[in-house]
Design brief:
The chain is built from 12 helices and 13 strands. The protein is an alpha/beta fold. The structure holds adenosine-5'-diphosphate. Adenosine-5'-diphosphate binds next to helix 3, strand 11, strand 13 and helix 10.
């Protein structure tokens, strides 16, 4: 960092330290609450404030005060501050839906009516009703498959309960930069334009995601990132949604100009009930469900398919609900190994039959998005 940038960083740190940590009474810097302070040469500033678990509401005004204090520093033209909390479960512990902070209805300024993202031709969400079904794995490999089909592809990790993209793509620890237009530049990973809340805050932290803050931060991730340019637009942006069918997902689905959503599920009966709820949510918001993907459909052992979690349930559920079924993905140890190695399976093994499955699912998704007209609003009398 050059000396003038370092000097500016020091001034910003002092401005932040003038704001008191409500717990220790010390300045925010002295109390160690500020993380990842990014300062760009043209006046952009980005940082995270860590609040202890459960202290989110108390820290919301602190975040606002810190943002205002930094904005008042000469030379600062744009400030983005996010609030984080230590994850309740560590990153190495399996994530359970019960570990999520409770969701309360969104009270934020609304995101506004759906509108397009500059220089992005198509927006497809990958959703799941529960965590742990492989949604992020599928999203990353689907993005790789779109790229394999010749599309310029972006991948946005909105899985705010535990962003996994930095690890999945092997870019953990790298930080996005801010351009002269004050917009964040996506991190390029294996040819994909990517952004994740995990690039901005420590991946072992969970953002305090109550409806209001989630929608605000998500808006920043969408509006304040230069996804493409007039010369090099993105053909498709894949959105890895947070798991669930609660308020956060509903708000996102309503406010983003989605061309459609795919739903990832495992074949279990329990999971399928959730899939039906997911389909209903998208239908309520008039977003085409481009299809259902059954993940962990079987385990191949000794040439036999062992249907560990049941047989064909997601296909039946999709057909019953009148939405397309996009295909099955078997349990494949290599998928997890690739994720751990930071290279999506579909890129690491371009000739593998599983990659062919991802490619077929990607092609079917595109076809369904092309033909799916947004259904007319249905008025229901209850
Ligand atoms: P989610 O985003 O739904 O929480 P992840 O994509 O993080 O789920 O996947 C959860 C775990 O399951 C990860 O360790 C991932 O590598 C593994 N996984 C996902 N799909 C498969 C699969 N088809 N075969 C083997 N492991 C899988």
């Amino acid at each position: 960092m050059n000396t003038s940038l370092q000097a500016q960083r020091d001034i910003i740190s002092r401005a932040l330290d003038a704001i008191k940590d409500p717990l220790s009474g010390k300045g925010l810097i002295a109390a160690g609450r500020v993380e990842n302070l990014l300062v760009s040469a043209d006046g952009g500033v980005l940082f995270a404030i860590e609040a202890p678990a459960g202290e989110g509401p108390r820290f919301a005004p602190v975040r606002a005060a810190a943002e205002a204090a930094v904005r008042a520093v000469p030379g600062v033209s744009k400030v983005t501050a996010v609030l984080t909390a230590p994850a309740e479960g560590r990153a190495d512990a399996p994530r359970k839906p019960s570990q999520k902070p409770p969701q309360t209805p969104a009270q934020s300024p609304p995101l506004g009516a759906p509108r397009g993202i500059a220089h992005v031709a198509m927006l497809v969400a990958v959703a799941s009703a529960k965590g742990g079904v492989g949604k992020s794995t599928v999203a990353a490999n689907l993005a790789a498959a779109f790229q394999g089909l010749g599309l310029r592809t972006g991948l946005l990790d909105l899985d705010v309960y535990g962003p996994s993209l930095p690890t999945l793509l092997g870019v953990a620890g790298q930080k996005p930069t801010i351009g002269p237009d004050k917009l964040l530049r996506p991190l390029m990973a294996h040819g994909l334009a990517t952004m994740s809340i995990g690039y901005i805050v420590d991946p072992e932290q969970a953002i305090i995601w109550r409806g209001a803050m989630a929608t605000t931060a998500v808006r920043q991730l969408i509006d304040e990132v230069a996804w493409g340019t007039a010369e090099a637009p993105l053909d498709i942006l894949v959105l890895d949604l947070p798991p669930g069918t609660g308020d956060v997902q509903l708000t996102l689905a309503q406010r983003l100009p989605l061309d459609g959503a795919v739903i990832v599920s495992t074949p279990q009966e329990m999971a399928l009930a959730d899939v039906r709820r997911g389909i209903a949510m998208f239908e309520k918001t008039h977003i085409p469900v481009l299809g259902v993907i059954e993940n962990m459909a079987w385990l191949e052992t000794g040439g036999e398919r062992l249907h560990v979690f049941g047989d064909g349930g997601a296909r039946r559920t999709a057909l019953e609900a009148g939405v397309p079924f996009l295909g099955e993905l078997p349990i494949e140890v290599g998928l997890r190994e690739s994720a751990d190695a930071g290279l999506p399976f579909a890129l690491a093994h371009p000739d593998h039959p599983l990659t062919a499955r991802f490619r077929a699912i990607a092609a079917a998704t595109l076809e369904n998005a092309r033909t799916a007209a947004r259904p007319a609003p249905v008025i229901r009398f209850e």
